[in-house]
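> Could you send the IS21 family transposase prediction when you get a chance?

Sure thing. Input:
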Amino acid sequence: MPGRHINDHQMRLYMKYRLKEGPAQAAARAGFSAATGYRIDQDRRLPSQKKAPRARRRPDPLAAIFDTEIVPLLQSAPGIRPIAVLDEMLRRHPDLPGNVRRTLERRIRDWRALHGEEHDVMFRQVHEPGRLGLSDFTEMDSLGVTVAGVALDHRLYHFRLACSGFEHAHVILGGESYVALAEGLQNAIWALGGVPREHRSDSLSAAFRNLEALAREDLTTRYEALCAHYGMQPTRNNRGIAHEYGAVKNMCCSITN
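Output:
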């Protein structure tokens, strides 16, 4: 309509119809004039991409003190909260506007992102179908299962595909061991009717505990041979890095809750 600016949605509609129709027809379907359609053909940027960044409309009230007073305060006390910084600045400068809190919080956030303490970088995991399967054991002592009045010493073996969420679990009598892992993994593969390209386990520290170096090496070799038999690549998550094993750990926690 005359006098109204087009939005990103209208332009995307126009570009969709423009693949098969002329500018006039595509513009009519998108709800604006043919002249606008011809202008879009000359400049394919979305309306939101053409807007110039908004400039500051009033003087920066922190310009004179941020680098000289606030930054040294942030460096000497990295965990200090912005509200505490504001209180200190108001004490030092009574003429500072009281409504500067949001500006101060934004400036501190930006400064810490560039100059503050380093943080772990997390990348979103994209799981491909059939690529990764994971195994883990879950302690079941908290459930208090008994047989004939005697506490049952057992745990649960749990297998899960990271992408599809296929799960298989069964009871393991006793503690973690290579035999328990091999039995659980083979039963899970038979129930699945196929194998993932990669199988991931934790560090297997419980299975290797109290073993001599040669025995640990032997178990590692047997585990790798088992994966090679099924055509899987064996991998392990890094010890203490919980998010690498979250696809199966989170489900194990939900089983015991």
